[in-house]
DNA sequence: CAAACATATCGATAAATCTCGATATGTAGA
DNA sequence: TCTACATATCGAGATTTATCGATATGTTTG
């Protein structure tokens, strides 16, 4: 992992809401209600559930999720009209290893 | 390590100059000239050497080093009129573990 | 195709950060 | 105590980030 990515990941992690999102996604079952059309959390949690939990505006959360995806922290998957987001554990591992 | 500290550490790490400083301090011998009054790097590197290497102003680097110390990333030690800075490996370990 | 809905993008404004020069503080030595 | 020097702090302007409402895009279904 190169330095540019480390900077962008660190920027994502330097905001409490974004840090919360990353933490909530560790255990979607206990932090979010079940999805209606998808019966599992294999691809993570849909954006609207995350937005609802944060109490910030839809546009803000969409921007946050997008920047977290761009730097690699999250993986997004589109199912119909919903976008699901889950943690990218491999990128997180690389980020940790950078500081070893 | 609580969330507040994670935020402040992430902020420190989200600036390329500060990230460089942290990396340089991994190997002071190969990144800095020897000190004159102190014959080792046991307490890290003095602020003026770091400032010189970054090419930023003295006040900027002093602020950077201070914020990196406040969040725990660095340990500072005063020897006479010089302040030495070294990595705080324990805090770095806690930071890494937070994301496991 | 039209309506409904989830998400993304576009300005805009307020707040925070970056970075500096100027100045203050602390320390060593004449 | 006076000077020199290393570091810290202050105040300010430029840049970036946070966050919003409005609007655009994409998807499903009647």
Structure description:
The structure is a homodimer of 100-residue chains. The first copy, chain A, is α+β, with helices and mostly antiparallel strands and 100 residues long. Chain A has a single domain, classed as Arc Repressor Mutant, subunit A, CATH 1.10.10.10. The first copy, chain A, contains 6 helices and 3 strands, in the order H-H-H-E-H-H-E-E-H. The radius of gyration of chain A is 13 Å and the shape is globular. The A-B interface holds A 3, 6-7, 10-11, 13-16, 19, 92, 95-96, 99-100 and B 3, 6-7, 10-11, 13-16, 19, 92, 95-96, 99-100. The structure holds a DNA duplex (30 and 30 nucleotides).
Which SSEs are present, and which pair or pack?
2 copies of one chain form a homodimer.
Chain A: H1 3-13, H2 16-24, H3 28-31, E1 45-46, H4 47-54, H5 58-70, E2 74-79, E3 82-87, H6 89-98
Antiparallel strand pairs in A: 1-3, 2-3
Helix pairs in contact in A: 4-5
Chain A binds a DNA duplex (30 and 30 nucleotides) through helix 4 and helix 5.
Provide a quick synopsis of the model.
The first copy, chain A, has one domain: Winged helix-like DNA-binding domain superfamily/Winged helix DNA-binding domain (Arc Repressor Mutant, subunit A).
């Amino acid at each position: 992992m190169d330095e540019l990515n480390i900077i962008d990941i660190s920027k994502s992690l330097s905001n409490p809401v974004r840090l919360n999102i990353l933490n909530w996604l560790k255990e979607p079952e206990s932090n979010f209600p079940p999805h209606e059309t998808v019966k599992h959390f294999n691809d993570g949690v849909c954006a609207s559930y995350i937005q609802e939990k944060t109490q910030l505006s839809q546009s803000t959360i969409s921007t946050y999720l997008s920047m977290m995806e761009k730097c690699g922290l999250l993986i997004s998957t589109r199912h119909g009209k919903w976008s699901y987001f889950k943690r990218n554990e491999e990128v997180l591992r690389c980020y940790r290893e950078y500081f070893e």
